[in-house]
Specification:
2 helices, about 75% helix, about 70 residues, single chain, transmembrane, elongated
Length: about 70
Amino acid sequence: MNRSVFVPLTIRSYRQLFTAQVFSDLGNWFDFIAIEALIVYHWGLGAGALAAFAVTMGIPMDFNGSLDGCSG
């Protein structure tokens, strides 16, 4: 059982999927940061608005996770 965690990356289609997912997640984080910048700097709102934004982004994940059988 001495296999490396990088063995799946030797499969070309998996490597392409993994790379695409990395760029997709990076784009999601840039979007999240841009919305936070809008909330704070453009609209002039404070910490409460940032907290409300974080909660509204997390609610669907919590709700769908419980429906999918995931616990987190």
